[in-house]
Amino acid sequence: MGTSTSTSYTDFDIVINSQSSAYDRFSYRVTAVDTRGFSSDPSGLPYANVWGDPIFGLAQSLPDSLISVNPPLAQLKQNFPNPFSPRTEIEFNLRDRVHVSLVIYNILGREVARLIDDVKETGYHRAVWDATDQPSGVYFYTLKVQGITRTRYMSLVR
Questions:
Q1: Which of 25, 66, 93, 115 could form a disulfide with 62 if both were Cys (CB 3.0 to 4.6 A apart)?
Q2: φ and ψ of 52, to 5 deg
Q3: Torsion of CA 75, 81, 86, 88, to 10 degrees
Q4: pLDDT (tens digit per residue) in 91-115
């Protein structure tokens, strides 16, 4: 727990100690307590995207230069659920505000849906694909950001 006499506080003591993936999202709630013990309602649900491989138990012994991670420009997660029928969600993270293209292709490489073709802000994003009009099979989804392409596959089952 930390204290501050101003309207801002930087917490350097958070340790994420779990079996999470290298790119995860964690919630962080804040409650303010004054000198008389009165507390505020918890804050909304701000979140932090965690980039790079977690370093468990080493953060305090490593110099800042080793734990400062330059996140990738774009990170594409596996869709969920997978296999799916007929809707699935695709999540991705962006380091910067950039133009993004998120396209679904069938096994023959034909475009079957263009979910996003627009500028997106830094942070976490989610797109939903409704494949009601598509046959069962394997599909590929591709995220393109400033010359970088990330592709994953998913299975539609009926």
A1: 66
A2: 85, 175
A3: -30
A4: 999 988 999 999 999 999 999 999 9
Segments making up each domain of the chain, as ranges? 1-70, 74-156
Average pLDDT, the chain: 76
Neighbours of 53 (CB within 10 A): 10
d(CA 14, CA 36): 26
Angstrom distance (rounded) from CA 100 to CA 112: 17
CATH of 74-156, one of 3.40.710.10, 3.40.50.10610, 3.30.70.20, 2.60.40.1930: 2.60.40.1930
Compute how many other C-beta atoms are within 10 angstroms of the C-beta atom of residue 65.
6
Q: In sequence order, which residues have a C-beta less than 8 Å from that of residue 85 and are 6 or more positions away?
A: 156, 157, 158
Tokens read off for 83: 């296999």
In this structure, are residues 47 and 27 in contact, taking their beta carbons and an 8 Å threshold?
A: yes
Q: In this predicted model, what pLDDT tens digit does every residue of 69-84 receive, in sequence order?
A: 455 788 899 999 999 9
Gap between the Cα atoms of 64 and 6, Å rounded: 25
